[in-house]
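Internal tracking record. Fields below are filled automatically when a chain is submitted to the structure queue. Please do not edit lines marked as system-generated. If the sequence contains nonstandard residues, flag them in the REMARKS field before resubmitting.
Queue: standard
Priority: normal
Entity type: single polypeptide chain
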Amino acid sequence: MLIIPPRNKLRSLPLHEAASRGNTAMIKELLSKGIDVNELDDVGGTAILTAAANSYSNSIRLLASAKGDVDKPDMEGTSPLHKAAENGHTRAIIALVDSGAHIHQRNRRGETPLHLAALNNHGDAVRELLRIGGRPDVKNNGGKSVLAVAKACNASAALEALKEHAEKKTFFYKLKKKLFGTPKKRR
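SYSTEM-GENERATED OUTPUT FOLLOWS
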């Protein structure tokens, strides 16, 4: 018999606690007892956000399959994908996107997950977000693109990932132009 404990001293909810530890067996048990998968903790975060912050991709997939909202932001406007990107958790990024997370979602500062990965110099997370369609040209509320953010904080790994992406785009553009020619302008 499962006894659902009250909030602990940190005022965490049982499902959030299981998500923070990647305890999928406990998550399954709690969900089977009717715990709301989208219940908010004291800062307005869901268990999926907690799993994303701790890079537990199996927990993310399990919670998402139970109708967990993969895009639900906390009170600061931070979505699970923002949290995964901010912490450089590439596996969590993949799990969230595979579960339907919106990669262009913005937080209160107008930042996309790609902005946060670049700001925190997580080159692999920047590469993954670019691979799945993240747009480096999007500007935050301060008018800064992902490249401008990376340059401003001297984020070398993020800058390298952005450079690689730009080189690939240029290569494929040139290849397409060579194969198919320059499109004619419409009149």
